[in-house]
Amino acid sequence: MTRKLRKLFFLFILMRKHYAHEFISLNDHLFSGRKESMQNDLWFGKYRIQKELKRHEDTIVYLAEHISLHSLCILKKIDKKSPLCKGLYQEAKILSSLHHASIPCVFDFIETENFTCLILQYLPGKTLLSVCQSIELSEKLILSYAILLCDILKYLHSQKQPVLHLDIKPSNLLISESELYLIDFGNAIRKSDIRKDFLGTKWFAPPEQYEQSILDERSDIYAFGMVLYYMVFGQEYTRRKGENIEENNRCSKELSAVINRCLMLKKTIRYSSIVEIKKRLLQIQQKQNKTGEGKSAAIYTVSGSQRHIGCTHFAMKLCKFLKFQYGNCLYIESNPTCAVRDMLTENGRLNSDGIYEYEGIPMLPFYEGRILSDEMLSKYKHIVYDYGVLSEENREGFLKGKHCFSVVGAKDWELTNSKQQLILLRNSKVIYLANFITTKEQAKLLRTMNLQIERLPYESYTLTGKTSETMKLLRDIL
């Protein structure tokens, strides 16, 4: 070997020894704060990172997959030099002692030279924050979610050494269908623990957390009241702390009273326990259910002047709106085209009661000889019947609706069918809607038809967002 080659060879050996830790401690290298693509990186030989969920100061939260079990999990990593590292150990210790379906389980706790990592059960769903930002919750739904949260807090507060979460807020609550989960126990403590550092989130934390006073179950009750307020008003508390909520059209007086008492600045005036709150919420819920007993479902009917005019599209929009507003709605396909039946067969989920579910909407497809039993329909307070193209045969059934919607066309080649629709519905109380038209075409249609016709916005039937034009239109109409 020449002198030059030997020199290069020994230089390579020295570099290899010097940087050996970078090859061995690959995970440490991956956990450095730099942003990079991690889709193919394997941590601890078993976790593949899917995406970064959250980054705050020295903490990063990832969604990962266990490669052997093919199951999702949460990786919460904190730099070992961070003062928050001790809190992660405390979180792992508390969570490992809890066993509740609505609280994440601890899968693993790993420490390396440079970081500490907590691996948690992945819980599905959207945060209550995102849900409240996209829709207005009905009081019925608010009560349902609040009672579920009461059950979780009752479990925490009734431990042999009571657990205080101390960071209850909409972004730490997950909603998945009819389930609610409480996550992020980073601020949680045992009631007997003494912590002098500030904990919690602005607006949601009670005064005693700012004042470094003694914390107890009533500290969580204050945050619970703030969550109730957020669900009702869709925003953070806008009043001076301690100021009561006056009468409003967003919730009942009874629910307002619960919120006011939870948010008392002096914790001695608040509810003494979450059990007391749940009892009151159940009383409100039972009273509202009793008021609704004996009332038949509100019937909404939809028809179109011709095929492909957007009748079913609007019917599904209407279902989404009704579910958002009241938490309960059923779609029934009442026309023999069977387009919805075909869609549900491919993409719907069939429940044990014979009703499909698609995009969160309970749906009943059309079948020859189908029987709509009272037992099947009794649990729905709002039912939308999609009659398809209006005809002499289905006109009578269509007009039985409490709210009847007729979707018509405004293009020149659609006007004949639209006028025929008007003849069939002469002198009937029908809400006319025009699809796929501009405001200019709407004005022309008003002149041609000589009646009030609303323009349907160009939007997906999913109706995401409080600012949805369809949401606003339906709220004005209904």
Automatic annotation (TrEMBL):
Look at the named UniProt entry and state the broad enzyme category this protein falls under: transferase
The EC number of this protein is 2.7.11.1
Any Pfam family: Pkinase
Q: Which UniProt keywords apply?
A: ATP-binding, Kinase, Nucleotide-binding, Serine/threonine-protein kinase, Transferase
Which reaction is recorded as catalysed by this protein?
Answer: L-threonyl-[protein] + ATP = O-phospho-L-threonyl-[protein] + ADP + H(+); L-seryl-[protein] + ATP = O-phospho-L-seryl-[protein] + ADP + H(+)
Q: Which Gene Ontology MF annotations are present?
A: ATP binding; protein serine/threonine kinase activity
The Protein kinase domain is annotated at 47-282
Q: Which InterPro entries match?
A: Kinase-like_dom_sf, Prot_kinase_dom, Ser/Thr_kinase_AS
Note the PANTHER family from the entry: SERINE/THREONINE PROTEIN KINASE, SERINE_THREONINE KINASE LIKE DOMAIN CONTAINING 1
The molecule here is called non-specific serine/threonine protein kinase
Top-level taxonomy? Bacteria, Bacillati, Bacillota, Clostridia, Lachnospirales
